[in-house]
Each structure stands twice: as C-alpha cells, then as structure tokens.
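Design review, sub-item: ligand-bound model
Attendees: FS, YL, KQ
YL presented the inputs for the flavin-adenine dinucleotide complex:
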Amino acid sequence: MSARSDRSPVSSNGKSSDYRRQNEDLAARLGVLALSLRVVQAEDLTPSFRRITLAGEELRAMEPFPGQDLMIALDGNGERVRRRRYTIRHFDRWRRQVTLDVALHGDGPGVQWARSVRPGHAVEAVGPRGKIGLDPNASWHLFVGDDAFAPAALAMAEAVPPTRNVVLAIEVDGPGHEQPADVRARVSGPRWIHRGDAAPGNPARLLEAVASLSLPTGRGHAYVGGEHRVVNALRDALEARGLASEDLSVKSYWRLGRQNAANGEPERT
Ligand SMILES: Cc1cc2nc3c(=O)[nH]c(=O)nc-3n(C[C@H](O)[C@H](O)[C@H](O)COP(=O)(O)OP(=O)(O)OC[C@H]3O[C@@H](n4cnc5c(N)ncnc54)[C@H](O)[C@@H]3O)c2cc1C
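KQ shared the predicted structure:
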C-alpha cells in the first residue's frame, strides 16, 4: 500500500493529531478513552448498511457493555469538531477490533464518512459511551426501533441468556435488508418490519407492531431507539400497554429533516 493510500482524508490534512488532542480532553471529561484507530475493513452488510471494522492497540483497555457506542470525530475545527455516534456491534479485545454498522440513509456527514472510509484510513474516536444496557432483572427483553437502532438491538439481544426471551420489532427497508444475528435466547415478535416504499421517520408501522405484540409473562424491559418522534410515540404506546417507565429505555438517535448536533445527539427543540 502506498504512503498516500494509507492516509485518511483526516490525517492527510493534518487534522488527526488535532482531533486526538480534543478527544483526549473530551474523554477525560467523560471518564472514557480517546482512541486512535485505523479502518481494517469496510464492506456492505446489506444494501442499506455499511459495516466498518476499526482496530487499534488502545482498544485493549476498553470494556464496553452491549448497547454502548463510540463517538467518531468526522470533521470541523477547534471547539466545533463534528461527531457522530455508532453502536459497537462487535468487540474483539483479543484482536483489538471493534465493528460498527452504519445505516446509509440521507447524505449527512456520518453517512458520507461511512461511504468513504477505506482500509488504512485513520479514525479518531471517544468511548465507550451510552448508559442503556440490558436490565439484569428482566425475564424478557423487547427491542423496538428503526434501522439506526438495529446494531444496538442486535448487540443487546445477542447478550440475552438462552433462558430468557427476546421480542424483536426492527424496521428496515425490505426483505433484503434484514441482518444476521446470533441470538441464543428464545426470539418472538415480527423481528423485521418492512418499510417498503414508505419514507423513514414515520411511526405508523412500528406502532402497529407494538399494538399487536404478544408479550411474555413476568417482568420485562423495553428498549426503544430511532427517530426522535418515532421513539416518543413508541414510548407512549408501550406505556399504554402497561410498561412502567422504569422498565422502558428510550433513546433518540436522529431527527427527521434535521441534522444531529455537533456532539452527535439529535436537537431536542
Ligand atoms: C447513541 C447513538 C447511537 C447510534 N448508533 C447508530 C448505529 O449503530 N448505526 C447507525 O446507522 N446510526 C446510529 N446512530 C445515528 C447516527 O449517529 C447518525 O445520526 C446517523 O448516521 C445520521 O448521521 P448523518 O451525519 O449522516 O446525518 P445528519 O447530519 O444528522 O442528518 C442529515 C439528514 O439525514 C436524515 N437522517 C439521519 N438519519 C437518518 C435515518 N436513519 N433515516 C433517514 N434519514 C436520516 C436527517 O433527518 C437529516 O435530514 C446513533 C445515534 C446515537 C445518538
């Protein structure tokens, strides 16, 4: 590989060390790690998902729980570094590798990054981030959301023990967009809901699924992720189905028609 092709757009314009310094400050404030990583693989997982595998010696010290994510520095200057968050789909401490799956919807900076990265590119990240993990006291776990939530839902579902139940309802573009997962627990629910020609960011199909779900008995926990309005509508629907607020973990990942803020979160107002 030539010296040039070994460099990312980030490092070739001298930004990598700049991001590293800023990531170290941010990581110290958050009590997490600043990670200088390199892309080892970037491939299509489905027609609408790019799977990106990153490696770096600093991953040796990372101890993420399923559902946590990395904050990737994409572009920007000074205080205004623009970041996007991607869930850790797989973590291999032995090989010092982490895998992220990115939904290719829209043409925002995160999606452009996912489409453009190639093996050898440098990536500056901060992590692990995120507070939502599996509820150890729940006998069943319900995962509901759109494509952006699929990596978190599947990473958590794969960590549910075989004696427990998983209920899955994840909206994707269509049958060819369903993703492989190695879930050991008993799985029920529609699993994949097909959007077809409808636009993303509409809660209708997921609300329909939640209304008709048959939920296992015992105490369960629901995890909801995706578009801002969609997750709020799903929260209301699950509360209406009798879930207590302490048994609901809801996270807004993106907002229809609006860019996420520079810190990677959807704007709240
Ligand atoms: C904690 C957390 C974890 C996340 N984990 C993942 C993950 O594992 N995989 C993943 O793909 N995303 C994940 N996301 C979402 C991700 O961080 C970005 O929001 C997403 O990639 C879009 O970023 P962008 O810069 O391309 O678009 P933005 O600049 O934020 O938005 C540009 C335009 O694209 C639209 N848009 C954004 N996302 C979608 C979408 N999914 N469908 C349709 N239109 C969209 C926006 O409405 C806007 O009009 C996560 C977000 C959070 C907060």
